Amino acid sequence: MIPQAKKFIIFFLFAGLLLAGCGGKDQAAAAGEAKVFTIAVIPKGMTHEFWKAIHAGAAQAAKELGVNIIWKGPQKEDDRAQQITVVEDVISRGVAGVVLAPLDDRALVRPVQEAMREKIPVVIIDSGLQGKDYLSFVATDNYQGGVLAAKRMGDLLQGQGRIFMIRYQEGSASTAERERGFLETVTKEFPGLKLLVKDQYAGSTTETAYQLAENLLGRFPDVEGIFCPNESSTFGTLRALQESQLAGKVKFVGFDSSPKLVQALRDGHLHGLILQNPVKMGYLGVSYMVQYLRGQKIPERVDTGVYLATKENMDTPEIRALLSPDLSILD
Known about the structure:
Elements: H1 4-33, E1 38-42, H2 49-65, E2 68-71, H3 80-92, E3 97-100, H4 109-117, E4 122-125, E5 136-139, H5 142-156, E6 161-167, H6 173-189, E7 193-201, H7 206-219, E8 225-227, H8 231-243, E9 251-255, H9 259-267, E10 272-275, H10 278-293, E11 301-303, E12 307-309, H11 317-323
Parallel strand pairs: 1-2, 1-3, 3-4, 4-5, 5-11, 6-7, 6-8, 8-9, 9-10
Antiparallel strand pairs: 10-12
Helix pairs in contact: 2-10, 3-4, 5-6, 7-8
């Protein structure tokens, strides 16, 4: 027989061991909760300079916040099926969250709904998506970008002239908003600007944009101004103007930046570039996802800013940083 006092001592020792074991499990669970998140960042495409800047911002946020990112998207910005496949793939891999720039505002609705059903949260960046099945939308005020472009064109032509507006591609919500902002501002504020072309689509590549611009310049050699709503349409049209010996003569306002577009701005072949802040967009997309995963509240809509670059202001610190963002983190 064990004396009563010893029974109590043994009981408390055993209970202490049990509590220690439970505490160990709790600590292990806490360690599991503190695991490194893996977040998929899915751009519209992989080739344009704009997406490299988005990647740099996302990578910087991942480095600062101690998470991993999977950077993967379709090669071409018109490959809806491939982007859907990428989204479905990262869902099956069980990532912690998805940061997505949908290349089509309708085609990507179902894959995003599927992710949310699988308890994989989604933040949308750059271009809008129909519905509300996502946490937050981080993007440029694209309509305002179109307004800035129209005002620049109106100033360049002093409110009078024959112009083109070359569209990007159907289903792209961001560029559709830029086009709408441009058209509505021209109509309201610059009735002396005559739109010779407003419903032609450049397509997703520089080459298709070049072919369209070359055709339009052949049909309308008296054009005095052109607006393009994204990087590839701007560069393709620039090539067509240069080869037609019209670069610098036709007032030309484009969107986004690349080394060749920066040089064209300096050379006077471009008379304005509407700029976004893609580094900030990628950075905030990942940052807000991490905040959400860590139980913090995030905003539903964030405007990352829109700016006009000209030959006169392109060397100011603010505009220079947007024209030539630091991509060294990707090296």
